């Protein structure tokens, strides 16, 4: 039976505040893990928590792993909760996003093992092909730095815009050098991009949010990221220093097992792609 605890951002914010108050005066290792209890992993609902639930229900007991999964619907709290030790690990993000997060927030989160890729896609309720977008069409893109850059690179890879040479993971619409359709860009929170589809001509949506909204990336996307040499694989992550926790190493091994690979391939049919 599915037994995943769901926490809202508001609840976690209050929890984090309480933890912050109780941590006053503690040593610098306050975020280190107590390996005697269950491993609590923060995850986005789809597909991350679903994959973890499969591990918990089918594989963890035999491996001697006590696993608890907590779902989060934002891209911030899983890292802050991992940093302060209220969860032991998280599974929701890619390397460019983590690098940007650590740099801006002073956190110390590190990857453990890469599990899967969720191809970013362009979707529309108004056109069936990307080249059918009209002049002046509005395209919603995620408003966080890394995912916005990723969205723009997807559009550039499919000939809708041209970006400056060498632009990296901080690309913004200001870095567009050619825009033959005079596309307009609406920046929205990543989780809201599927909901924006009724208000814009198209939206670039992260794979997990597309699946949660009932979209099938492999079928419904007008254009979709290629998995070849893709730097955006999603991984299990912990606070630095906790990589060798025996529960973490057990989970890393299970997440890259043949059983999990088959589960991902069977359940997501190309909308989520194993990275191992």
Which of globular, elongated, flat, extended, rod-shaped describes the shape? globular
Determine the mean pLDDT. Answer: 89
Structural class: alpha/beta
Q: Number of helical segments?
A: 9
- Provide the gyration radius in Å: 19 Å
InterPro entries: Lipoprotein_NlpA (IPR004872)
Family: Belongs to the nlpA lipoprotein family.
Organism: Streptomyces lavenduligriseus
Protein name: Lipoprotein
Question: What descriptors fit this protein?
Answer:
single chain, 276 residues, alpha/beta, seven-stranded mixed sheet, five-stranded mixed sheet, 9 helices, 35% helix, globular
Structure summarized in a few sentences:
InterPro entries: Lipoprotein_NlpA. The protein has 276 residues and is an alpha/beta fold.
Tell me what you see in this structure.
The structure is a single chain. The two termini are 28 Å apart. Helix content is 35%, strand content 21%.
Task: Give the SSE map.
Blueprint: E1 5-6, H1 9-22, E2 39-43, H2 45-63, E3 67-71, H3 77-84, E4 89-93, H4 95-105, E5 109-117, E6 121-123, E7 138-142, H5 145-157, E8 162-163, E9 176-178, E10 184-188, E11 202-205, H6 207-212, H7 217-220, E12 223-224, E13 234-239, H8 246-255, H9 258-268, E14 273-274
Parallel strand pairs: 1-3, 2-3, 2-4, 7-10, 7-11
Antiparallel strand pairs: 4-13, 5-13, 5-14, 6-11, 6-12, 8-9
Main location: membrane
Subcellular location: Membrane
Family: Belongs to the nlpA lipoprotein family.
